[in-house]
Fold these 2 entries.
Entry 1:
Amino acid sequence: MKEYDIIGKPLPRVDGIEKVTGQAKFTVDMAMRGMLFGKFLRSPHPHAKLLSVNVEKAKKLPGVKAVITRDDVAGIRYAFVDTPRYPADETPLAVDKVRYIGDEVAAVAAIDPDTAEEAIRLIEVEYKPLTPVFDPEEAMETGAPDIHEPFELGSKTEWEDWGVRRDRRALDWRDAKNLSGRTSVVFGDVEKGFAQSDYVREDRFETKATAHCALEPHAALASFEPSGKLSMYLSSMGIFYKRFILAKALGLPISRVRILKTYVGGAFGGKIDLFPYEFCAAFLSRMTGKPVRFELEREEVFTSTRQRHPTIIHIKTGVKKDGTILAQKTKFIADNGAYRGSGAIVVYLGHAFSIPVYSVPNYHYEGYSVYTNNPIRGPQRAHGSPQIRFAVDSQIEMIAEELGLDPLEIMLKNARKKDDILPNGDVLKSCGLSKCLEKAAQTSGWKEWRGDRAKRTQERESTSRYKRGLGMSACSMFSGAPFYPFASSALVKLHDDGSVTLYIGATEMGQGSDTTMAQVAAQELGLQLEDIRVVSGDTELCPIDHGQFLSGGAFVTGNAVRLAAADAKSQLLKLAVEILGADEPDLGTKEKRFYVRGNSDKSVAYAELIQLSVQRNNGNPIIGKGSMKAVQEAEFYPSLAKAKGHFTDAYGFAVQVAEVEVDTQTGLVNILKTVTYHDCGYPLNLSIVEGQVHGNVSMGLGQALWEEILLEGGQIQNPTFLDYRAPLATETPKMISGMVETRDPGGPYGAKEVGEGSISGILAAVANAIYDAIGIRFTRLPITPEKVLEALTLPLSPKGKGKV
Amino acid sequence: MKHILKLHVNGEEFEVLAGTNKTLLEVLREDLGLTGTKRGCDLGTCGACTVLIDEKPHLSCLTLAAAVQGKKIMTIEGLAQEGELHSLQKAFVERGAIQCGFCTPGMILTAKAFLDEHSHPSEGEVKKAISGNLCRCTGYVKILEAIISVTKDS
């Protein structure tokens, strides 16, 4: 396959030096003269009526510049999803009720954080506690308390601006209490499929809420210019999406809101939603005429931003004796907490990340997102995929065990292939899934270890203290999706010296966007990485960008950059052809010059061509532009309810193996090694791609083994890094990450998704490896030492297999 | 109650008017504008605020500024000498040990203090040395590679 000079190389990041010298500015580092500090009063109740809020004393405290409550922000609503079916359900400050512990009740702006804090303590609130509900299945029962009033039909919603039609007016679609979203998908005849199956089994799986743990806390700094224009620094992962929703909530024209660049100290999905602190920073700034900054405390980040959806997943699968899947029926229940957040999306994605992996001819999926009085849940890395992959691939192993098959064989037999058409019409134009399975098996020594079933059973049942096991799982991820703003574009501006400034609206949040996009521009223009300067992350300077969610960065923005650079190059080339008197195909590029192949003395510098262009073409200094729609054939938003319409234009795939050692005396699971093979199409920067895989694997291991938001009556018990433990350096196993190149025809140089997919396979890989080691099936995450020990002491079933 | 604090930071003397309850982290970031030292948790649990005090790593969010007067404080801004990056800074850049970069300053300073005392550590020792510095982006793999590469080069 074709190799390139710049693309594919593990080049150092363009922001590396800024970051190692402490010069890189993050949102929390931004300060303005005379700025005020914002703080919230938050609800101590999980569910209560808000009777009165008295702020008189707080307002009188010296140094307090403004205190706002529901009275100040009456009528303002916004949400991550805002359609006629799912109208926005969030308000900047609580109105009639509080719905979780941490719900914002009032906000203060004061001259320093201590004064703001003191003012918060002076606010008097009267609550009337209401019955809370914390379990999603209980919340769906008839007698459960209503967390939200029935939604208002006919209210204006944001998504309508971009193609969500009102004609299919939302009737009350709810078939259970407290539902915030429903997805139903049927294809084939699932009952017939089960009837034709040799073996059918049904299992229930549970996953827990987990925290993103981005190291930079959520923060925003807002200031209004005298003209009435808002400038904001915020820690985000999609500045155009943020601007869209923020402008609407503030009642400002979109052009009067500018989001400026800062580096983002990690996001992992947790910074895409609009948050009350962002709205209130802007609102309080407008009110006081001064810049206002909010910086959430770490505990607030844990309690009052977003978490991964905990899920309950029932899966019934029917297979033939040889492991061919004939039918699958899934019920996916996601607890989205007090507000919808991305609930209606995660239940759609639970389906969308199920169907691209295995071919299932008869399928029935029912997704329910449910309101509870728990904290709010939102997107987190691979949004919905880790949960559904954990369930599906744990069950594949259980089926393999029953049928006496190697799970790898079942996975290979059912794996999707290139050119497969998914039920929604998406075509897998590239698919390295089978190759990933084969490579992962080979590298992990799968056949050697798992091949001898009798030996495995013997070892599993032996009395040795430490037992080893191997487990595998497969997963898939979008490469961008049709959500606002639906497209990316890029501008390439040439300078007199032949170097380039690249303008992209993407946000550099650690994933390496600035570097990778600079590489694409350099490759296309025949330049070196150092010839490209990137201006990104600013809604005023940069053209629109898809945003850093659902893994559209490389695929969508990368294509836009490639086209913009190609546009600039073709303008240069036209002049070069004329000056050198050669045909286009005979011209090569080197060191900012075009030369005639086979006659390198005959050449012309980019700088000369730019001068020439200015002289001849009415001052045209050569600016290239390019744009790319996220999903070519999609009419804006897909249907979340029926999962119809195109989801993405390219699917990334990954297969992951975990090798574990279980200490049967302590219950501790030690990860010895992980193997990941990722089909990301083509790695634009190998070092960055490997870094993404490592981060995914690490997060996945934490979530498989110990990460869990512990809740007691809606109160988070572990809102610190001490109690909620993200993996430490000492918990880093050997990680092997290999690439399977498929070069997607639609991707820039064949690139697809990379930043999210490879967290999803780790969960089932670990659970399956633990089963392989000790013969106990864990269907509830995380698999903590306590659970392992408890299971080891349970009486064994006659077949020696437990299920926990 | 505010006092004039005399602090020695990155080879320079500073006088800062600050309350006695101010942490070193607050003074560095808010009074001296040295925002390379990061506040990730303000509870001493993430390591992002690590600075060197008399060449030893300390969590500046748990250190009162008044208590470190007369000591030599080094922040990430003071590590490169005369425009030349420290070998760890170079290794982090070259080996892709950086993603979002928020943990990077604390991570590099912790590693520096460790390597100053252990010239040829094992991988396990390096892991232990940086286990108080959280990184959510990298899974630590390339960070470990970068730190170990410096010990091999020397």
Entry 2:
Amino acid sequence: MTTAPSEGATPDGFSVRVEDTGDTVVLSVSGEVDMATAPALEESIKGALERAPKTLVVDLSGVGFLASAGMSVLIGGNQQAGGRTQFRLVAVGSATLRPMELTGIAAEFSIHPTRDQALSGG
Amino acid sequence: MQLDDVQEGDLHVRVPAVAGRLTALRHALAEWAERCGLDAQDREALTLASYEAMANSVEHAYAGQLQGVLDLRAERDHAERRVVVTVTDYGQWRAPPSDPGTRGRGLPLIRGLTPDSTIRPSPHGTAVSMSWPLPDR
């Protein structure tokens, strides 16, 4: 019998950095997006969409774990953006892109391998 | 939280089914999968699928009831050359809605991440078992 990691630990280093250039808002997400952190991501996306930018880029390059709770938040953001704001994701690799592909939701998003490509829409 | 060694190197944990407990369990599982020698892709799949199964228990199993517990078992099945993760709760099974809206991606994700999963709902709770092959030595 051993003692497990401390109870109620928050995921290591979850953060969302906001860069607002007027027409474009970029949210750079770092850490793990799970049930515990998804509400914080949801708040960040809502806050960004309230500024009604032309483009909102959610950069998941720094995300090492994406649970379905996080995907629900992204789907909600995409729907909330509607036709007013272009909602784009940056996602590559097994931690973020693979779960979105496995659930079939990747097809609902505009997903780009790099932030530059997301910004240029390419 | 207690980790009882059931069989040398296996994991059996019982915790209150609350979201705040799952992060530490996930990290413990990732370490366990590494000790078992699973490759990076299977470790990631095992960790995410197990998390989704636990999240299901937290979200659905005990809705409207007193807070329950969930059991997490991670075991090596040497005879079958595989690892098996089982998440058991003792609440009410709720079938996924036909239109999940923005939610309800947990079960499809589990099915996509494991070559072999079994969901056993019963009046007394639900057990989700998932397995991944052990690498050849």
